[in-house]
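[#protein-structures] MJ: dropping Trehalose-6-phosphate synthase here for a structure pass
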Amino acid sequence: MGRLVVVSNRVPSSSDRQQPAGGLAVALQDALSHGEALWFGWSGQQIAQAEASNRKPSEETVDNVTYATIDLTHAEFDGFYQKYSNGILWPLCHYRAGLMDYSRKDREVYLTVNHLFAQQLRPLLRPDDIIWVHDYHLFPLGQALRDVGITNPIGFFLHIPFPPWSLMKALPGAERLMHSLESYDVIGLQTEDDARNMNDGLEQCGVQTRGQVFPIGIDPASFAAQAKACEDDFDVQRLQQSLRGRPLVIGVDRLDYSKGIPERFHGYEAFLKRFPEHKGKVMYLQIAPVSRGTVEEYRRLKQDLDETAGRINGMYGDFDWTPIRYITHPVPRHLLAGFYRLADVALVTPLRDGMNLVAKEYVAAQDEEDPGVLILSHFAGAAPEMEDALLVNPHDADEIADALHKALTMTQSERQERWERLKPDVWRVTAGSWARDFIEQLVRVERG
Ligand code: ADQ
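AK: finished. structure tokens for Trehalose-6-phosphate synthase:
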């Protein structure tokens, strides 16, 4: 096999690479460690239009991996990243067409940046490279690479859901987008539902290619070891002492409307109302670092959450008890692992999610003698593999309330049985196996 070339919107910075905080960097760690590799994408830097004409990728090689990045102009960042990727494709793929703020101009910028990626990547490519493109920012990159003469095998993986064609076609130019997918040799999606939706769309548009399912996982062994090693960490101990023997319910999400955090707060409120015996006797910690804070919809969400948490704390709290501890800054990964292990219950209730790695991390972090309970939304991509979690409809506050009560009163033996049944899948489908399976398919294409 030739070199593996990964293309994603963002390339992790050198500090992110030293301590990858989840996401793609962690998932690809294993795949990038075998042989020579190139990772190409946006640097995260913005430049003025005047500096754009003589742009060239800047390259940095660390061990066997070369990281090549380009800067985007302010207008490219705005149209490609903020508006089209995060203001149109993200809501639409999460079944929220109503939040889509479409403009033809942004679509043009999106296509232009995809062509820019192709032009800038082309001189760095070798004839025997295999190319792996990631996520919705780069749907048309395969086509753009073919347009500049690249004939290498190209794969595409979509990390987020793919909606039914009846919804997807609300996107002006959706058919063109589906046709552009024909340039890929392998297309990967997270779940059977996503693959069915995409394949139906491809069929309706008369496109021959088809998507396949490659569910993503975590590195459970190292995550479990990290969680255990963190038990005595100063900050984990601080959290434990602050609980004063009360059970801990934890939520960990990027602050995003797809994660269902307001609905979760309402579920917790319904729980306090309907099961008052838990008042003052439980702690709910929600960690939700601000993401995409410059997009209007995300600002509105943050305001809504600030208000809802404040209202619930004001209404149900007491002078010695705060119902929701809510923080909007990130927590280092090793501490997260320790917090998960300490938590008696995890609330993972997205309205729609490609996979949701937090659910898998929570299972991996548990103490097998005394595991906690996972409450998981039916609409997380992880749900079909995790039927022994307490599965809930996140839109139903009472269902979340019932699940919380059930989790907090569950016997130790039931908790153990459920966890024993959740564990094998988390250990079987890992980040490493996901990347290996996908790359194997691409290599098969290369061999013809
Ligand atoms: P995300 O939407 O970012 O990813 P998710 O899979 O839950 O969602 O989390 C990715 C990583 O970020 C996890 O490793 C998690 O620990 C970390 N993370 C989340 N919240 C955090 C917090 N508050 N503090 C610190 N770290 C936090 C997208 C898709 C998902 C899909 C992944 C991978 O939206 O559905 O599972 O890609 O394909």
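MJ: nice. The two ends are 13 Å apart (CA to CA).
AK: one more thing. Residues 27 and 234 are 28 Å apart (CA to CA).
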